[in-house]
Amino acid sequence: MENTEQINTMPRIGDKAPAFKAVTTQGEINFPADYAGKWVILFSHPADFTPVCTSEFMTFAHMEPEFNALNCSLVGLSVDGLYSHIAWLRTIKEKIEYKGMKDIEVTFPLIEDITMDVAKKYGMIQPGESSTKAVRAVFFIDPAGTIRAMIYYPLSMGRNFDEIKRALIAMQAADKYAIATPADWKPGDDVIIPTAGSCGVAKERMENKDEMTCHDWFFCTKPLAKEKIDALGTTA
Is domain 2-160 classified as CATH 3.40.50.10860? Predict the structure, then answer.
């Protein structure tokens, strides 16, 4: 019972990211202290030298400059050892071509977690799926070290990287512009003005009242220029 309880421990949105020190392919890290002032995407994969994980790591590495431009660092984890990580990443660079991506070098840290200590801290071990492999978890951690969102995928399904990037941008936009984003929102779409009690109260708070559209007292939107979204990384 003790092991099951420990494995099932999961942080929640709004919690401080559990702290840990670990060995990685880029040296030792002290998490999340080493990333203070930055957003971090901490993600787990089930195992090295597996096809779905390989496609994901190539995509993360290919998109890393896009995440860095949003003041966001990437940190990966699996329960494999450091030498397995190094050999796998070398194989990716030297041998694998996928969707036009080749000669891909993974430069972000990949955590060695043979003991599963970190995976257990973050609820990445889901016994119903596997008691020996981490599921495909994604944690969005803000510059203050707070968990802002989590996404979990089963072992068999690769992640949607457009959605991961969209979620990061939406949270950054919400923080900077005090808005919310509607279903299927993409940069350049209208955003939601958080409910202020009534449409009239919401209009009183807005500087450019003519830009506001009220569909009903509880549902008001306004434009948010894509240029402002594109500038988030430089103003984070």
Answer: no
Nearest to 145 by CA among 34, 36, 22, 20: 36
139: tokens are 């944690």
Terminal-to-terminal C-alpha distance of the chain:
44
Of 32, 23, 221, the residue nearest 109 (C-alpha): 23
Phi, psi of 192 (to 5 degrees): -95, 135
| Helix pair angle (82-95, 51-68), 10° resolution | 80
Please check whether residue 84 is in contact with residue 48, taking contact to mean a CB–CB distance below 8 angstroms.
Answer: yes
The C-alpha atoms of residue 177 and residue 150 are separated, in whole angstroms, by 22
Q: Does the active-site annotation cover 53?
A: yes
Chain centroid to CA 89: 21
CATH 3.30.1020 fits 178-235, yes or no: yes
43-80 pLDDT tens trace: 999 999 999 999 999 999 999 999 999 999 999 999 99
Domain parsing of the chain, residue ranges: 2-160, 178-235
H helix or E strand, kind and range, residue 24: strand 20-24
Per-residue pLDDT tens over the stretch 125-139 = 888 888 778 889 999
Main-chain phi, psi angles of 94, to 5 degrees: -90, -25
DSSP 211: G
